Amino acid sequence: MADARPFHWEFTPPPVPREIFRVEGGRPLHGRVAVSGSKNAALKLLAAATLTGERCRLTNVPEIEDVRVMAETLRDLGVVVDHPAANVYEIASGDVDWLFVPLEAAAKMRASFILLGPLLARFGRVIISNPGGDRIGRRPVDLHVDAMRALGASIDYRNGYYFATAPGRLRGGEVRFPFVSVMGTENAMLAATLAEGHTVIRPAAQEPEVDDLIGFLQAMGAAVKRTQPDTIEVEGRKRLRGADHRVVPDRIETGTFVIAAAVTGGRITLKGAPCDHLGAFLETMGLIGVGVTCGSDTIEVDGSALHDGGFRACDIETAPYPGLATDLQPPTAVLLSQANGVSRIHETIFEDRLEWLSEVRRMGASVEVLDPHHATITGPSTLVGTEVEIGDLRAGASLILAALAAQGTTTIHGAHHVHRGYENIERKFLDLGASISRTAEGQ
Hints:
UDP-n-acetylglucosamine1-carboxyvinyl-transferase, Chain, single chain, 2 domains, alpha/beta
């Protein structure tokens, strides 16, 4: 790696412009809203496009901050990334000479680490920073590093950076994870597409976004398939071709708007909604008493039970897909604050994900965090507008939901977190009749 350009080890991220949401609660939401493309799928698809020098075209890409950061990171590497129209990205990865993913990118977005597998497989070397991302608990990248080593890579860690090389091609092999890891599965799969020989990945994550990535890789000519629910097998190819792909709809955004209708006692229709990807979540909604009707590509939500006998308390437990997604636990917690009785939350994925409940408690919710993985919520509680602070992406969206259900005005600091993962969220809420605005801090 002697030909790599000089770089600095120390980096102080520039201050992120501070923004706030102001929400006037107490308005039932009504109308129709279109579901955007999946954040978690789009970021991995952009990374996958670096596996070929031919042009790839992605549509239904959400216009969010994380996608913008990933696109800029790829451009900094020398990848041609065009954005010819809203929700459309075109990527061409020719001869990429600057194989260095800096701390600037990692500090903004943990998903930058997904570039490890494809860049290592395609170019044989990469220097990549330890990632950042939301502060919701430990998210070790050792699984990713071990997966690359299982495929023949040599990786050293120095001064906060991973120096990875693969003399010749990566070699197919068995990648065994100690537990299910979505991005670990995706990184291993991306690396294996250009490795020599056969690779078996298990236990492989079963999330719909992983299968969306498989579909894109197959269109590129990769020999990759899910042979069992928890097993993905890959036969390496020497090269892949360009392909077009439409990003799968965002199931987390869908769930967020389902709960928005419920906690406001409204009725909304979600267009382009991935009903098939929300089995455990929709089952939970049924137990709580939210009326949900799935069409071919729509979900109709009836939250009238809020004022007609009330919602029912429910115990929930997060789990890898097909279980209840951890990203839908915070919004579900808001809904449980309006249910009759005591609900219990068991967060099995992240040990810090329950910390945000202190903010909804300030709004009047009866919440007790028992330990990093367990909490109880007693309802129904009358939520009252106040000043709260967003700590991460999903907590931010959930505080908006709490503010929509609350009496009076809520000021939510840290709105920039939400724009990492939700496209035009305030516009969508305004179209449904909410009173919400976003302004710079201090205005």
